[in-house]
Amino acid sequence: MKKTPKNNKIKNTPEPTNLPVVFKFEIPKEIRAVTTALEKAGFEAYLVGGCVRDLILGKTPKDWDVTTNAIPEQIITLFPKTFYENNYGTVGVVNEETKTVTESTKEASMQVDETLKVVEVTPYRFEANYSDNRHPDSVTFSKNLKDDLQRRDFTINAIALDSKGEVVDPYGGLKDILAKTIRTVGAPEERFQEDGLRIMRAVRFYAELSFKIESSTEEAIKKMAHILDKIAKERIRDEFVKIILSDTPALGIEMAQKLGILKYIVPELEQALGIGQNQAHSFDVWTHLMKTLQHSADKKWPLHIRLSALFHDIGKPKTRRRDAVKNDWTFYGHEVVGARMTDKIMRDLRFPKDLSETVTKLVRWHMFFSDTEQITLSAVRRLISKVGKENVWDLMNLRVCDRIGTGRPKENPYRLRKYKSMVEEVMRDPVSVGMLAIDGKGIMESAKIPAGPKIGHILHALLEEVLEDPKLNTLEYLSEKARELAKLSEIELKKIGDEGKQKKELEDEKVLKEIRGKYHVK
After folding, report:
1. Using CA atoms, how far apart are residues 152 and 337, in angstroms rounded to an integer?
2. Is 134 helix (H, G, I), strand (E, B) or coil?
3. What is the 3-state secondary structure (H, E, C) of 82-124?
4. Do the beta carbons of residue 235 and residue 298 sit within 8 Å?
5. Whole-angstrom Cα distance, residue 139 to residue 194?
6. What is the b/e burial string over 399-434, where b = at least 16 CB atoms within 10 angstroms of the residue's CB?
7. Helix (H) or strand (E) holding 203
8. Where would you tag: which of 19, 139, 349, 522 has the fewest CB atoms within 10 A of its CB?
9. CA 121 to chain CA mean position, Å
10. Which tens digit of pLDDT belongs to each residue from 74-104?
């Protein structure tokens, strides 16, 4: 059994028996520079909150927070570049140059590490009354670290770490981290009354950390979920996004529903509960959405694909009808209804317009799939024109998630591989006269010849040269070459042009063979 190093002391906290954690805190020099500057000026300085929790868990902090007994005016004088734009005492200390080391070269570069660029330094403080359930009505600076820790949301975030590696933990946060438990500092109802967003933060930590929510904290969330109605949609959206981007977003959404807070985030999702599907599905709509979402997270897909996975069948409850002949459920048009619902959800949560449009588009066209033995390349082109070249592969990935969420074991069956092959066929840059830097009109102007079959022969002759050397595809070169070719007879031009056509066909055949081989299809 490993032991805690001597330089990492636990203050004011009962030490758990058989401690299974060895603390080895590596603090970036940019962060140490901030705490050192405060200490050299005679002030206390502690890392606090989520960064300490992450260090204990062996994770790299996403941001760094420092707390001190210095007041804002004193903090500002110690650093060359700061900003102070709030009523809560938090001063942003800007690190303009931070070095990162790439694993591939092991060499330092001058790229800015965003997690180190700004360090928030906040004085110890009391907070009094939260009449709007969001912000304290008043803030009073303190000289006591414990005063600052007691105002924090959860015990796992109410731990401080000084420059010597000593942990200050008056509320048992370390014990709760080791027990993987989310518990409020003090009475949970008081904490949630102060800031209703803490309710969502509890669910977010549940999803991000795979911690359980302590029973009295859970009961308080159920009782006080209605407070979320008073919270700005932008703040709810930000926590919702963090849940979706966690490793276990489906568990987070399921917990939100269990605790009665989903109705204040995306109420439309609850309509999917218990909605049975047809024989092609192993699960009801709710379970299918959760499994589809989770697979998108397992694949590490970005936010827009995860949101599309969560919402892709959200229109099914409104479109479910019983087919008397087949004696089964149908959901005709659910993708159209779902797209409208998705657009409304994204607007309600104040998502950026471009993200909203992308997610809505993926939901709208997720039912693109059809029999690849009958579908034509022109139909695939029409799909790409609707969803956009920039989104078509995301649509393919959404389809994979949808398939796994249905309960099928294979991500890429033959039909889907064939469809991907067809997409790649129509997506590749066409090798045709259309790619030339000159067109028929340009040839007529350069060579001073009238319209007629000769123009087409010249275009194909020029194509033959460009296929051989793409660098020749310039207006200047092709204009000069067109003037030379215009002097040849139609028979000579046709021969050169035919050679160009044959070469194009060979190039096409080679590329298509490579594409189809890549997907193991015919």
Report:
1. 43
2. coil
3. EECCCCCCCEEEECCCCCEECCCCCCEECCCCHHHHEEEEEEC
4. no
5. 13
6. bbbbbbbeeeeeeeeeebbbbbbbbbbbeeeebebe
7. helix 197-209
8. 522
9. 28
10. 999 999 999 998 777 899 999 865 554 444 4
Length reported for the chain: 522
Nearest Cα neighbor of 148 from 126, 163, 173 is: 126
- How is residue 59 annotated by DSSP? P
Q: In this predicted model, what pLDDT tens digit does every residue of 420-457 receive, in sequence order?
A: 888 887 776 445 677 788 999 999 999 999 998 889 88
Residue pointed to by tokens 């919402």:
311
Domains and CATH numbers, the chain: 10-178 (3.30.460.10), 180-265 (1.10.110.30), 271-427 (1.10.3210), 433-519 (no CATH)
State both tokens at 311: 């919402």
The one-letter code for the residue type at 247 is D
Return d(Cα 249, Cα 335) in angstroms, integer.
Answer: 23
Residue 306 CB coordination number (10 Å): 26
- DSSP lists the bridge partners of residue 181 as 212
Listed residue (249, 250, 154) closest to 197, CA to CA:
154
How far is Cα 24 from Cα 21, in angstroms, rounded to an integer? 9
Instruction: Give the C-alpha separation, 511 to 515, whole Å.
Output: 6
